[in-house]
């Protein structure tokens, strides 16, 4: 049984090598480039960056507003 497994593995390796040799010069990538998966990954990365940008802008605006409010309270307290 182990001899059969070894032979099957040898045949698989030989077939892989033959497939690579049939392809012309250059990189011999396996055919696994899934356009839909890449597109899905690109869109999820876009939304992740989009969310981070607006989260940062929102946090900056809220923090700035809080600081202005605290300064105005402090100035109002000093001049009363």
Number of strands: 0
The percent of residues in helical segments reads over 70%
Rg from alpha-carbon coordinates = 31 Å
Number of helices: 2
Q: How far apart, in Å, are the first and last alpha carbons?
A: 95 Å
What is the ordering of alpha helices and beta strands?
HH
Task: Indicate the structural class.
Answer: mainly alpha
Which residue ranges are poorly predicted, with pLDDT under 50 across at least 5 consecutive positions? none
Biggest β-sheet strands, sense, barrel = none
Q: Give the overall pLDDT as a whole number.
A: 83
Strand content: under 5%
Shape: rod-shaped
Keywords: Membrane, Transmembrane, Transmembrane helix
Transmembrane segments: 46-79
Question: Can you give a write-up of this model?
Answer:
With 80 residues, this protein is mainly alpha-helical. The chain has a domain of 43 residues. The protein is 81% helix and 0% strand. The relative contact order is 0.04. The mean pLDDT is 83. Keywords: Membrane, Transmembrane, Transmembrane helix.
Question: Helices and strands in order, then pairings?
Answer:
Elements: H1 2-22, H2 35-78
Key terms:
80 residues, mainly alpha, 2 helices, 81% helix, membrane, transmembrane helix, transmembrane
């Amino acid at each position: 049984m182990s001899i059969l497994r070894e032979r099957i593995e040898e045949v698989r390796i030989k077939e892989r090598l033959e497939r690579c040799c049939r392809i012309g010069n250059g990189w011999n990538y396996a055919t696994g480039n899934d356009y839909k998966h890449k597109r899905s990954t690109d869109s999820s990365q876009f939304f992740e960056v989009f969310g981070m940008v607006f989260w940062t802008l929102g946090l900056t605006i809220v923090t700035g507003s809080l600081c202005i409010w605290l300064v105005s309270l402090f100035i109002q307290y000093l001049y009363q």
